[in-house]
Specification:
By secondary structure, the protein is of the alpha/beta class. It folds into two domains: 178 residues, NAD(P)-binding Rossmann-like Domain (Rossmann fold, 3-Layer(aba) Sandwich); 88 residues, N-(1-d-carboxylethyl)-l-norvaline Dehydrogenase, domain 2. α1 crosses α2 and α2 runs antiparallel to α3. The protein has 14 helices and eight strands. β7, α7 and β8 form a beta-alpha-beta unit. The radius of gyration is 22 Å and the shape is globular. The protein binds nicotinamide-adenine-dinucleotide. Nicotinamide-adenine-dinucleotide binds next to α5. The site of nicotinamide-adenine-dinucleotide has 23 residues, from α5.
Amino acid sequence: MNEIQKITVLGTGVMGPDISLGFAMAGYEVTGVDIEQAILDRAAQKITLNCKQMVEEGMLREEEGLNVRSRITLTLDWEGAVAGADYITEAVPEEMGTKKEVFRRCDELCSEGVVIASNTSSMSITEISSTMKYPQRAVSTHWTIPAHLSPMVEVICGEKTSEATAALVFTLLKKAGKFPVPCKDSPGFIHNYIQFAMVKAAMDLLEHEIASPDDIDTVVKNGFGLRLSSVGPIKFIDLCGLDTILNIQKYMYKMTKNPIYRPSEIIEKNVHRGNLGAKTGRGFYEYTGDEAEKLRILTNRTIIRIKQELKEF
Ligand SMILES: NC(=O)c1ccc[n+]([C@@H]2O[C@H](COP(=O)([O-])OP(=O)(O)OC[C@H]3O[C@@H](n4cnc5c(N)ncnc54)[C@H](O)[C@@H]3O)[C@@H](O)[C@H]2O)c1
């Protein structure tokens, strides 16, 4: 595999500029490519503004901000940018045909040692790479918005992705200050399997005129949104109590008949065994000693700090 110095990002719409910035912040030379000059111009402006904000917020010194910005070049020269890359990631629209064609063309244009990554939010990398002669170098790296700041990137290997490709991607993302999380090649992976359940629920509330867009956003941002940075959904279930969660599921399913609220077998089994979460010392995690207490302190501290910082609650 090639040593990585030059990275090409295909597509500079919403995600491409921030992914480019993420790599440039780690010292890589990045070329962003799109199919229209007006899109490149908007991308250039967004990258400059994001660099400026990181300087204003004290995350980068002024000189660092300028250096980061100078490492990103934007171009319409698709073939030149692909042929000259040591690593490629695409951020083109979420359409299977478009992604397959991009992977087929990249496969033709670059040498065998170049890894080609997809930023797909939901689609199978096995299918995306099915048009390639060398599918062992295809992988998905799902960055989340805003990509230059969000630390987590999901890494999805297809049926033919080689171990060398996976290892290279984990190393590269760690160098870029991210923490890569391996996920199975399954629709929506972890992030969007969960996030899109919320999207659907929010749209149901709107469609049934149960709440306004602003009230829905306010409840999520100021409710579970605040604690999600310290407690994920599984630990939340443990802290809330599996018996309580089960009762809520039972009632909501009875009233709505919506399958998303059908009581979960895995919760029923645990409740049956007496594993009710932190309050009994065991749920999906084990709570020995003062772990539950430490988690309470961490959750509170996170919320206190976010509230102090944002002052808009
Ligand atoms: N928008 C998000 O919040 C988000 C978050 C995570 C992942 N993603 C994923 O990232 C990918 C890109 O999403 P987006 O929101 O940036 O889309 P977008 O539509 O904003 O941008 C896609 C860009 O790709 C360009 N493009 C189309 N064909 C191209 C080609 N052959 N070569 C180069 N550029 C081409 C388009 O002109 C456009 O500017 C999708 O797979 C999406 O699911 C999006």
